[in-house]
Every structure is written in structure tokens, then in C-alpha cells.
Amino acid sequence: MRGRRANRWLTVLAASMVALGAGLVTAGVASASTPVGHYAVIKFWPSYQVVTLKVPLQQWCPPSKPSCVWMLSVDEPNIPPQTVVGTATGTSGVLVVAYPSNFCGVI
């Protein structure tokens, strides 16, 4: 009698653990990543010879300037007049500036 009672408890405990484990597996993973759209993202695409700037969402503009205008400017600082390779401005989306294959400068 005592052995059957122990087996029942072990069966209930094992079923509970399986159910709890299944619940944890299907619950998903807590993410610690930054929410999309908070920050401007600059990327170099050497294969396409372009620089892109992903403009953050308008809601992140300061209250004093609710309509932010972003500007991406590429120049060559090592040349005395600092030759401008290209500029792009905008309020949303992705800004793109193409540069020559022999370009050696900074943004």
C-alpha cells in the first residue's frame, strides 16, 4: 500500500515537472536588445560603395525640435579643402551616399 502511494506521488511529481518544463520552453526568451528605432545606425557597404544612415523614428526627436532633419555627410579630411564626397538629408527612412572605390575618408 505504501509503495503504491509513493508511485502515485512520483507520477504526479513527474507529470508536473514535464508540464512546467514545457511551459517554460514555449514561453519564449526574454530579450535584452535595444528597441528598434531608438538610434541612428550607420553602415558601410564596401561591395556597393555606399554609406547608409538609418534614421530613427520621429518620436525620438527632442521636444524642442519635433521635426528632426538628419544629414549624412561624407568628406575626405586628408585633402586640404576637405573635399565633400556626398551628402544626403531626410527625416525618415535610410539616407544613402555613394563614394568612389579609392575613397579613404571619414564620416
Q: What order do the strands of the largest sheet run in, or round the barrel if closed?
A: 1-2-5
Count of helical stretches:
1
User: What share of residues are in beta strands?
Assistant: 25-35%
- The tally of strands reads 5
Integer average pLDDT? 75
Question: What is the helix content?
Answer: 10-25%
Note the overall shape. elongated
The radius of gyration computed from the alpha-carbon positions, rounded to a whole number of angstroms, is 28 Å
Distance, first to last CA: 80 Å
By secondary-structure content and strand pairing, the structural class works out as: alpha+beta
H/E series: HEEEEE
Number of structurally distinct domains: 2
Oligomer: single chain
Question: Which characteristics define this entry?
Answer:
107 residues, alpha+beta, 24% helix, elongated, 28% strand, 1 helix, 2 domains, two-stranded antiparallel sheet, three-stranded antiparallel sheet
Summarize the structure.
The protein is built from 1 helix and 5 strands.
Characterise the protein shown here.
The protein has 107 residues and is of the alpha+beta class. The protein has two domains: 1-30; 41-98, no CATH class. The protein is 24% helix and 28% strand. The chain contains one helix and five strands, in the order H-E-E-E-E-E. It has one helix at residues 2-27; strands spanning 41-45, 50-54, 70-76, 83-90, 94-98. The strands form two sheets. The protein has a three-stranded antiparallel sheet with strand order 1-2-5, with no helix packed on it. The chain has a two-stranded antiparallel sheet with strand order 3-4. The mean pLDDT is 75.
